[in-house]
Specification:
Strand order of the largest sheet: 1-4-5-7-8
Structural class: alpha+beta
Radius of gyration: 20 Å
Strand content: 15-25%
Shape: globular
Low-confidence stretches: 44-49, 85-92
Order of helices and strands: HHHHEEEEEEHEEEH
Number of helices: 6
Length: 212
């Protein structure tokens, strides 16, 4: 199992989960399996094995879930999909950017915006709270880039199939909280619903801009 997982030189979230499940089933400690996977990787001339913590793995899986909602066949483009690469506390500046940068075709041209993906296994007192520094960083980035940021929040279920999906404009988060009762942000996870939601959101944004 370790040899198969490391054959391509990268331990993906799915492979991580399979190895973990295999270890639990046969009472083999995961560190031993991972060590063997790393050992096999070092025998071939491929990139180093990537190790994901459980939280990072859930985050990656939820990002994939959101990416699958983007209808590339309708002219949408994924301009960037940020990857968190950190070594000895050294990281590239783009690791501070939102996860996804999307180009969205409109009737007259196109717009682009950012989506930050967040997954939580459960609600904390019927809300999800963000740190002040996180919201400040996102708002500073939105102001600097002059492009809207939205938070894709998955709660409950699994990262691949959350019980609730919300897409919340950053401008709607005033106290660092997204509440379960904010049902106006709930989106049924299909590509059609994603497109309708985003079209309605930007129609409102453009209407308010014209009013000013």
């Amino acid at each position: 199992m370790a040899k198969l997982a490391s054959a391509d030189g990268v331990l993906t979230p799915n492979e991580f989960a399979i190895l973990k499940e295999f270890g639990e089933k046969y009472n083999i400690g995961f560190p031993l399996i991972y060590k063997k996977a790393k050992g096999y990787e070092e025998r071939v001339n491929l990139p180093e094995v990537e190790y994901f913590t459980d939280t990072e793995m859930k985050g990656k899986l939820f990002e994939k879930f959101v990416v699958d909602l983007i209808p590339i066949n309708l002219g949408f483009k994924l301009l960037s999909w940020r990857g968190d690469k950190v070594h000895a506390n050294i990281y590239s500046q783009d690791s501070l950017y939102p996860d996804l940068w999307i180009q969205h075709p409109m009737s007259s041209g196109s717009i682009d915006y950012y989506i930050e993906c967040k997954y939580r296994s459960w609600w904390d007192d019927n809300e999800v709270i963000f740190e002040d520094w996180q919201i400040k960083r996102y708002k500073d980035f939105q102001r600097e880039k002059k492009r809207k940021i939205l938070i894709a929040l998955g709660v409950g279920g699994s990262p691949e199939k959350p019980e609730t999906l919300m897409i919340v404009p950053l401008d709607s988060i005033n106290d660092g909280r997204i509440k379960k009762i904010d049902t106006q942000f709930v989106v049924t996870p299909t590509s059609d619903n994603f497109v309708k939601y985003m079209n309605n959101y930007f129609y409102t944004v453009f209407s308010k801009t014209k009013e000013k």
